Amino acid sequence: MAAAWRGGPLPALHLATLDGGRVHLPHDFSGRPLLVNVWASWCPPCIEEMPELDRFAREQGTEGVQVLGLALDEPDAVRAFLERVPVRYPLAIDAPGPADAGVRLGNPRGMLPYSVLVSADGRLLKQKIGPFEPGEIDRWAGP
Questions:
Q1: Which residues of 92-106 are buried (b: 16+ CB within 10 A; e: fewer)?
Q2: How many CB atoms lie within 10 A of CB 115?
Q3: What is the C-alpha separation between 141 and 55, in angstroms, rounded?
Q4: Among the listed residues 126, 141, 104, 132, the one whose alpha carbon sits nearest the alpha carbon of residue 48
Q5: Contact 18, 79 (CB under 8 A)
Q6: For residue 135, what are the contacts with CB-CB under 8 A and spacing of at least 6?
Q7: Could you give the CA distance from residue 114 to residue 35 in angstroms, rounded to a whole number?
Q8: Residues sharing a CB contact under 8 Å with residue 50, sequence separation 6 or more, in sequence order
Q9: Residues in CB range of 27: below 8 A, 6 or more apart
Q10: Which residues contact 61 (CB under 8 A, 6 or more apart)?
Q11: Which of 11, 27, 39, 112 could form a cystine bridge with 2, CB 3.0-4.6 A?
């Protein structure tokens, strides 16, 4: 199993979306930086930071940093959660486990939330375990 490391290329990940589609990392997001936030509906710190991620994604528009939420969770639990806490950035889903997408993105201990910043050409630039405080994401993911 290939796992990402800082400065290295992101491994190819093929992930399901809640509507039955697929996303392919890093290919589908190439050309602009990408922040991937790994979360779960049962994770209180994950839930706390989602409005901040949504704000950041909206402010980035179509030219700035892209945001992708990656839920390590059951699809029905994620759908129910999004009814209460909607977000406008795209979401993907993966089953949690020893080789899940979070692990492959460089988080071997599976701590959540976990975020990575990926360059426009698909290299892992930064990793963060734990939630973003208000305003922190702008400095962390900004130019």
A1: bbbebeeebbbbbbb
A2: 27
A3: 13
A4: 132
A5: yes
A6: none
A7: 10
A8: 39, 69, 85, 87
A9: 12, 122
A10: none
A11: 11
**Rounded CA separation 71/17 (Å):** 10
Q: Which residue has the tokens 């910043």?
A: 117
What pLDDT score was predicted for residue 134? Answer: 87
- 125's tokens: 């630039």
Distance from C-alpha of 20 to C-alpha of 54, rounded to nearest angstrom: 22
Name the residue type at position 98. P
Which position has the token pair 């950041």? 56
| Cα three-residue angle 72-76-81, rounded to 5 degrees | 75
106 token code pair: 């460089």
* β-pair partners for 128: 115
Average pLDDT across each block of 10 residues of the chain; the chain has 143 residues. List them in order.
85 93 95 97 94 95 95 96 93 93 91 96 95 92 79
35 to each of 40, 53, 67, 77, 142, how far by Cα in Å? 16, 9, 5, 23, 10
